[in-house]
Amino acid sequence: MQRACIGKISQGQYMLIVNKMIRFFEGKYEEVLSEYRDEMNSLASDLKFEEAAKLRDRILAIESIQKRQTVFYADKRNIDIVGFYQEESDAVCLLLRMQEGSIINTENYPLKNVAMKVEKRS
Fold first, then answer.
1. Exposure winner among 11, 36, 66, 113, fewest CB in 10 A?
2. From CA 31, how far away is CA 24, in angstroms rounded?
3. Is the CB of residue 105 less than 8 Å from the CB of residue 97?
4. In whole angstroms, what is the distance from residue 49 CA to residue 52 CA?
5. Which contacts of 82-88 are long-range, i.e. CB under 8 A and separated by 24 or more positions?
6. What is the pTM assigned to this prediction?
7. pLDDT-based confidence at 1, cuts 50/70/90?
């Protein structure tokens, strides 16, 4: 385990790890995967197979998370999508936050006793 607070790694190395984690939670999976692949290949070239295997496992875990992503928007802008559904007097408002084409967060807000008159179209 890498620990900056007890001197196992430098503060700079620690900050690289933290920044990578931040990019991961921002949904920048491909960027993080690319860095891990480069690092894994470098370790394997240096015959550090156990360390390379740890990175391989991280890569597989991130790819597994990506596969669960069911919505992808080709436009790489950061956007919020608001949806609304009503059934009788109950409704829900849903907020999807997308970054770089992937959903990074969902929030839903149940609404009770919603009185909305719906006009029927002929």
1. 113
2. 8
3. yes
4. 5
5. 86/114, 86/116, 86/118
6. 0.51
7. very low
What gap in Å lies between CA 117 and CA 122, rounded to an integer? 16
Instruction: Decide: 113 and 89 in contact? Cβ < 8 Å.
Output: yes
Residue 4's pLDDT is: 47
d(CA 41, CA 48): 10
48-57 confidence digits (pLDDT tens): 999 999 999 9
CA 37, 38, 39, 41 torsion: positive or negative?
Answer: positive
Please report, for the chain, the start and end positions of each structural domain, with discontinuous segments joined by +: 11-67, 79-111
Residue with tokens 């997308």: 98
Name residue, tokens 């609304």. 84
